[in-house]
Amino acid sequence: MVNQTTATEFVLLGFADLRELQILHAVVFLSIYLVALMGNFLLIAAVAQNPHLHSPMYFFLVNLSIVDVCYISTTVPKSMVNSLTDSKQISFSGCVAQVFLVIMLASSELFFLTAMAYDRYAAICNPLRYQLIMNWNVCFQMAAVSWVTSVTIAVVYTLNTFSLNFCQSNVIEQYFCDIPQLLKISCTDTATAQSLIFAITLSLGSFCFTFIFVSYVYIFSAVFKIQSAQGRQKAFSTCTPHLTFFCLFFFTASFSYMRPKALSSPTVDLLAAVLYTALPPVMNPIIYSLKNKDIQLALGRAMTNFHCISWVGFEEMDWKY
Please, are residues 191 and 164 in contact by the beta-carbon 8 Å criterion? Predict the structure, then answer.
């Protein structure tokens, strides 16, 4: 249960004080937001409309796209509204909700990326047993565990953060409610809260990173043993989008929260947070559409159902399998 505090609202860090720059910020964020929504919804529609893509790999990819849509929707729209209304306030309950959703969705992103690494390991290293290993019951169970674990972590982090008192300052030096910034403005001892967050983050992050790393050691070892160049290329085409997106998510998150203090400043913190919260949802459909031929073909087919949408370059592609 959240303790009673003197703070009834928080003040978020704005990107600019000049009205013209505030409008520019809103327009830029709106563009980023629309690109992320359109790309991820197109990806979901492409997979849903193509029975050829109804496989475990694309099941997890759809879950990842759903996470990305929700993830960017948690922070970017509020920042746009604040810029357009020349307001920096967020209510206490709104801040609680934002912290919960950011942690839940970031955790889900990591867990689904880990599940996708296991799927690629099973497909490439155990192709004859793949359908047995990754049957639909296993896929649904892995997805359920990912969501439930993410919700549990988010509840723990949120209760841990808002059990503190905020009676000195209510100014958060970030464009959304970020736990490290909230801990900075607490007027109570945060040592226990920081230790708990650090222990959970380190243990889960290390487990997922190690699991993915080891999976790809086995995957690359198996791929290099494939005799035909075409077979190696096909195997790589299903792995490189996942590995690219994982590296993007991991390194942006690491830079946001683990960079040296010498590289820390309000401006750098702000830009790092934008990279961490907005870039992965935008890049996910782009990475998969550029590096996965099945997704390219499916996206082309999906967009032919919407006459108002065109994508430069798809007109020249061969749509035949």
Answer: no
**CA dist., res. 266 & res. 123, Å (int):** 45
Contact yes or no for 169/6 (Cβ under 8 A): no
Residues with Cβ < 8 Å from 115, sequence gap 6 or more?
60, 142, 143, 146
Under DSSP, is residue 306 helix (H, G, I), strand (E, B) or coil?
Answer: coil
Q: Are 129 and 138 in contact (CB under 8 A)?
A: no
Average pLDDT over residues 155-172: 88
Mean pLDDT on 81-93: 88
Give tens-digit pLDDT for 255-296.
777 777 766 777 788 888 888 889 999 998 888 877 677 776
**10 beta partners:** 90
E strands, the chain, in order: 9-12, 89-91, 171-172
How far apart, in Å, do the first and last CA atoms of the chain sit?
Answer: 56
What confidence tens digit (pLDDT) does each residue in 208-255 have? 999 999 999 999 999 888 888 887 888 888 888 889 899 988 888 887
Rounded Cα gap, residues 25 and 27, in angstroms: 5
Q: What does the CA dihedral 282, 283, 285, 289 come to, rounded to 10 degrees?
A: 140
Residues 6+ positions from 21 with CB-CB distance below 8 Å = 15
Which pair of tokens denotes residue 8?
A: 């009834």
- Collapsed DSSP state (helix, strand, coil) of residue 242: helix
